[in-house]
Structure formats: structure tokens, C-alpha cells
Amino acid sequence: MLQLDDIHKSYATGSEVEIEVLHGINLQLRRGEFAALIGPSGSGKSTLLNLIGLLDRASRGRLLIDGQETGSLDDSALTRLRGSRIGFVFQHHHLIPAFTALENVMMPMLVERGRPDDEMRERAATLLEQVGLSAQAGNKANQMSGGQQQRVAIARALAMRPSLVLADEPTGNLDTKSADSVFALMREVNVAHQTTFLIVTHDARLAARCDRIIELVDGQIVSDKSPV
Amino acid sequence: MTPWLPFEWIAATRFLREGRAQSLLIIVGVGVGVSVIVFMSALLSGLQSNLVRRTLTSQSHIVLLPQEEIARPLRDATLGPLLQKQAQRLRSIDQWQQIRSHLSQMPEIAAVSPSAAGPAFAVRGDANKSVTLIGIEPEHYVRIIALNEKIVTGQLLLSAGEAVIGIELARDLGAGVGDKFSITTSNGATDTLIITGLFDLGNKGVNQRNVYVGLRSAQTLLDLVGGVSSIDLSLHDIYTAESMALRITRETGLQADSWIKTNAQFFTALNSQRISSNIIRFFIGLSVAFGIASVLVVSVVQRSKEIGILRAMGATRGQMLRIFLLQGGIVGLLGSFLGSTLAWFFLAAWRTLAVNPDGTPLFMITVEPWLFAISAGGASLVGILAALIPARRAARLDPVVAIRG
Ligand SMILES: Nc1ncnc2c1ncn2[C@@H]1O[C@H](COP(=O)(O)OP(=O)(O)OP(=O)(O)O)[C@@H](O)[C@H]1O
Ligand SMILES: [Mg+2]
Fold first, then answer.
1. What is the pTM of this model?
2. Which residue of A199, B31, B261, B368 has the smallest Cβ count within 10 Å?
């Protein structure tokens, strides 16, 4: 479902110097895969995730989602594709504080359809129930724990029934217990809906529980294997 | 979330509500600006219409006079006395009856009233006053100048031998309703008149000078039998007076003086007042716009992560743009409501404070609803324009940079 061919990414720093952060990434993810992306800090994990999530464009190389080449799409087409196919979970700043948990989960649907309706409200409620937060539906972000916020973020990422969920250190800010339950939740969704997951993590223990571990060092994939 | 509201409205109102203190402060800021504009505009238009009304209580909108005779030689010193004597002789408007019926048919003209007027002396006992004798047809004249409403004692009765005079002249002559005085015109004609009513046209000069009699009596006294010396017109739209005057001169050859021309100085004053208040309005609008813009610029920076997340969720640049434009518009609109309310209180306070010694208001201010409507629309527009720069920043924000924060 996802294919990267020789992806390069450079950043312009200062006036003329360009630093290449990713040096030719080749990667394929199949539907329903549950993969971990690991590597030292600064190795380019977030950069790669942003490229896959169509938040940024590669300097070179091809990126295909469900067979569709994305390099030639314009901004609004990328935005639409991103909205409908891809869900994001970030480490920090998860939710929009002006909205309740339920409304945050509705947000991707609202953004796409333009106006709230009962159907999206029901779907959001169902998702909150799945992540075990029905009781917190009316809470704002500052009225929930970090683990609860991250569960809401996962529910939100799933709202559009994306085929791919990208998570950048989703448990980075959580204690072990919350991290475990958030991780378990993603796994459940993966199994139930065959949703593909690509999870950046520094937690070797959690990485070991994925189907596949991709290791990035200095902008190159140095190993790509199943955990033992 | 209100079910029917579009996403942009929901987000805009939520963002404003969340940034409570900021939103409130800027709304108050806009409100103060709008209140000053509304208050000033109401005061100014009240003042103007009041001045106009006061001016027009004793003046007609257009006065038609006979074509001026070659006036220039008058200034010649040697020939002066001779020609001046000639000019003093009252001239009648040729074929005034036809002109009158022609004018009466013009839709722009509300009323037509001929009069025969000339200088005279009013004498009673020792008192001898120089006056203007004006012969009118009361039923037509009152549609030009509401003399009937300005009678303070007696009645507006102008049969032969009857006259209505101003309160000041009555005092000068030491006469009241029912008393007699004699009138002498420059050609020596004399008559004795009985006072049937006293008027107060709110203008001391007019109250001192004008002596109203029936048209016939004046024609006889002024040696103008069958003629009139001027025709007064009243228009439906007072501000068309100047163009109507030009048109009437073209059509009839008569000299037509509009009240606008007669009061040119007064209009210059009104205009400069209007210009200076427009300048003030402009700068208030500008500072309101800068206030809104600066608050929204800060808000875009504060919300850059949320903007990034919304964009990651599929929100378009256009949606982000509209969310911030709307915030500007809403702040402007709410500010204008607050401002209108404040202005209403200012005006109420002004009404109780700005009074004559006898407790009557200095002048009436009527606030027309459109003033509030315009200020609401204007403030929203200013808000949206002010939001343009911050909104574009929000729309252009790179989600990657925003999320990396
Ligand atoms: N906008 C940018 N401009 C310049 N350099 C950048 C930019 N974004 C990232 N980089 C550089 O790219 C490299 C990879 O960054 P990236 O955030 O992808 O690392 P990471 O693997 O996610 O690290 P971490 O584990 O600390 O999150 C870093 O050296 C970083 O400084
Ligand atoms: Mg990172």
C-alpha cells in the first residue's frame, strides 16, 4: 500500500548550504503491517514520517500510496489524500484545547465535510468508547491525563478510517503503564481493521512487540527485520 | 457544536472564546472606537440637521426675483444717486401667473408662493421703525414658512387692513394684538393696520423687520398693483436647491437664489466639519484595524501547532484563511455592538447634560438606525481586512514546521 523509491530529503540551511537528511530510502509497507521505526535522535525518523504523511515533499525519489504517485499532486490534492487516507498521532501537543475530546475526534470528519452532523458525532462516540474514554467525551485536553489525551488522539487518527496511521513517538511522554495501554490499543485497531501502522519509538521493549522493526541511522535504513 | 454551523465558524468562535482575555480586550478596543464614531456622527448629523432646520424656518428653499438689471453702473460714483433711485423702484416679475402655474407642475417643487415685498416704515406714537412689508397669500405662504405655527399670540389673519408682525417689532412699537399702527412706504403711500397676530420665527432680525399683510394690500402700498416682487419655492429635497435654481433660471430667465447659495458660508462650515470628522473616523478605523491585526498575529503564532495539526488532519489552506478572517470579522461585529451600546449611553448622557439654562435640549439628536447598521457593517469589514495579513500567515504556515514547533 505504501512504496518509497530512493527518497532523498535535503534542508536548506543558512544561505547556500543544503544538508541532506535522508539519503535514498527504499521501503514498502503492506496493508495491515504493524511496523516500528527506530534509530538515534537526529537520524531522520520524523522527517521520513512527515514525507510519508504528505506533510512535506521529498527532494528526490518517488512516493506511492495505494499505487498512486504523489510527487505530481498539488497542495490541495495532497491535503485531501492526507485527510482521507492517513491518520497522525504525535508525541506532544496532541489535541486542540478549544475543543472537547468528542469534538477533537470529530474534527477530521468535520474538516472534510464542512458541517457537523449526527453521523460523525456517533462515529466519534463509538471511537471514544473503543479507546475506553466515553466518560471523558465532554472533557477538554487540560482535563485529561497524558495517556487519555493520547488515546483521544488515536481515536481521532482513526476517524476517517485511514489505511495508514503514522505515530511519532506516541508513548514518548507517557509512563510505562499508559504507554502499554496506548500501544495495546493501536495493536487492537491494527488487528481489527487491518490498518497499517508505522510507529516511531525509542522504546525497545515496545518495538520488540511490532511485526517489523525498521532502523534508521544517519538517514539510511540500516536494518529492516522482524523481531526475534 | 451547533449542527448547522460550518467548520470555519465553529473553529473561529471557539478560538475567540478560548482566548477570552485577548478577545475581550480587543472587542472593548473596537467598541470604544466604534462608540466614538457613532457618537460623533450622531452629534454631527443632529447638529447639521438642526442648523439646517433653524435656517429654513425663516427662509424659503429658493427665492425667485426679477432678472437683475444691469447692476454694474450702480457702482459708478457719479451716476450713483440717479441709478440707485431707479433700482429702488420695485420691479414686478413679468407674467408671474404663468410662471407660477408652470412651477406648480414641477414634481420637485412642493409649494409656490408669490409675494410683494418692499421697504416701509412702521409708526406708532413716537416709535418709528424701518421694516419690510411683505404681502402674501397666507394659504400658500405657510407651506413655505410655517408662519401659522410660529404665531405666539393672536392668529394669522390677513384681510384688508390686517397685519401680523414679529414679537420684537411689537415690543419696539409697544403694541400688541388688536392695536393699530400706521405704515408708510417709500413712495409715500400710507395705511393704518390692525395687528391680528405676533410671530416668533426664531430669528431676531426677522422678528424685528417683517410685517406680513395680504398680497393685495402690499401691492397697493408698494405701487405694484397686480404684480409680485418675488416667488418663494419649497422643494421636496432641500439639497437639490442649487441645481433646481439653475434649472429654473434657465427655464424662466428669473434670478433664482437657493438657500444653499444664500448660506454659502454656513455650508462651507458644514463641509469642513464633515471633512475633519471623516479624518477622525478614518484614523479611528485605522487604529481599530491595527489592534485587531496585532491580536490576530499573536493568535496565529500561539496557535501554530493547532493550525499544523488541523492541516495534518486534512484542513485546507482556504479553511485556515477563513477561520482567521472570520475571527477578525466577528471581533469587528461584536465590537460594533458594544460600541453602539456605549454610544447610545453617551448620547443619553449628552441629552441630559447639554441643555439650555431652561432645561430644553441644546438641539435634538435623532439617531437613525442605519447609523448602527453602517457601523456594524463597517466594523466587520475593517475586522476582515485587518485579519487579512494574519489569516494569510495562518494559511501559509508549513504544517511540518508548525508541528515540530
Ligand atoms: N526544517 C529543517 N531544517 C533544517 N534541518 C532540519 C529540519 N528538520 C529537521 N532537520 C534536521 O534533520 C535531521 C533529522 O531530523 P528528524 O527530526 O527527522 O530526526 P529524528 O530522527 O526524528 O530525531 P528525534 O529522535 O530526536 O526526534 C536533524 O539533524 C535535524 O536537525
Ligand atoms: Mg523525531
1. 0.78
2. B368
Evaluate whether residue B286 is within a structural domain: yes
Query: Shortest CA distance to B180 belongs to which of B192, B172, B168?
Result: B192
Cα A25 from Cα A8, distance rounded (Å): 7
My answer on whether B290 and B248 are in the same domain is: no
CA dist A118 → A114, A122, B127 (Å): 13, 6, 93
* Closest residue by CA, ligand 1 atom 30: A42
Using DSSP's 3-state secondary structure scheme, residue A180 falls into helix
Q: Please tell me the residue having the least CA distance from ligand 1 atom 7.
A: A11
Quick check: A59 contacting B, CB < 8 Å? no
Domain limits for position B200? 72-78+86-253
- State the Cα–Cα distance between residues B345 and B348, nearest whole angstrom: 5
Q: Of A34-43, B166-175, B290-299, B360-369, where does mean pLDDT reach its minimum?
A: B360-369
Cβ distance of B314 and A80 shorter than 8 Å = yes
Q: Name beta bridge partners: A19.
A: A11
CATH code of the domain in which B218 resides: 2.40.40.20
In a domain, B29, yes or no: yes
| Distance in Å, CA A41 to ligand 1 centroid | 8
Q: Do A82 and B403 touch (CB under 8 A)?
A: no
**B230 and B299, same structural domain?**
no
Tell me which chain B residue has its CA closest to the CA of residue A156. Answer: B313
| Nearest ligand to the CA atom of B398 | 1
Closest chain A C-alpha to B339 CA, distance in angstroms: 27
Domains delineated in chain A: 2-225 (3.40.50.300)
- Atom 3 of ligand 1, residue of closest alpha carbon: A11
Interface predicted TM-score of the whole assembly (ipTM), two decimals: 0.90
